[in-house]
């Protein structure tokens, strides 16, 4: 794991290396929850804010689980936060893009992850990893509740 830094655009960035890690879904959810708390996304006593955080954690679970099931497991998990927007990136070694399954009953378990991304994320997609790297990065973006700015982080935290 690496801590938080700022990128060239001034966004706050946190990275979690996952090569061969166990319990990656829960590790990524915990990592995200801690970052969201540090970045002021978890408001005290706000049901709507808590629901938004639950949406983010569900989206994290979906993209990380998809990497586990369909791409040999995630290699890196990255959070980028800037001006009330969060970008989640999951890197894996598979060049195969995410593909929705054919039509299926909502009552059947599994196969609904991309539908969840479509409904809850502001945007999502994938791109090839950088030069010399094999695989792809699946990303999603989500914003804080409209009309609300993040609370400033406590002193000494990113």
Automatic annotation (TrEMBL):
Gene3D superfamilies listed in its UniProt record: Histidine kinase-like ATPase, C-terminal domain
Chain residue ranges for the region called Disordered: 90-110
The keyword Flavoprotein belongs to this UniProt entry's keyword annotation: no
InterPro entries on file: Anti-sigma-factor_SerPK, HATPase_C_sf, HATPase_dom
Single Gene Ontology MF annotation: ATP binding
Keyword field: ATP-binding, Kinase, Nucleotide-binding, Serine/threonine-protein kinase, Transferase
Pfam families for the chain: HATPase_c_2
All residue ranges annotated as the Histidine kinase/HSP90-like ATPase domain in the record: 44-140
Protein name according to UniProt: ATP-binding protein
Source species: Streptomyces bikiniensis
Record lineage: Bacteria, Bacillati, Actinomycetota, Actinomycetes, Kitasatosporales
């Amino acid at each position: 794991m690496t801590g938080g830094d700022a990128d060239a655009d001034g966004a706050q960035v946190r990275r979690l290396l996952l090569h061969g890690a166990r319990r990656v879904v829960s590790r990524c959810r915990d990592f995200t929850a801690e970052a969201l708390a540090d970045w002021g996304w978890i408001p005290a006593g706000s049901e709507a804010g808590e629901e938004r955080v639950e949406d983010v954690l569900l989206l994290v679970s979906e993209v990380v689980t998809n990497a586990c099931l369909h791409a040999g497991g995630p290699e890196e998990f990255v959070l980028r936060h800037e001006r009330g927007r969060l970008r989640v990136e999951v890197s894996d070694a598979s060049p195969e893009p995410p593909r929705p399954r054919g039509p299926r009953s909502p009552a059947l378990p599994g196969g609904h992850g991309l539908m969840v991304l479509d409904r809850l994320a502001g945007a999502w997609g994938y791109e090839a990893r950088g030069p010399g790297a094999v695989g792809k990065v699946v990303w999603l973006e989500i914003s804080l509740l409209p009309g609300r700015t993040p609370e400033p982080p406590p002193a000494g935290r990113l």
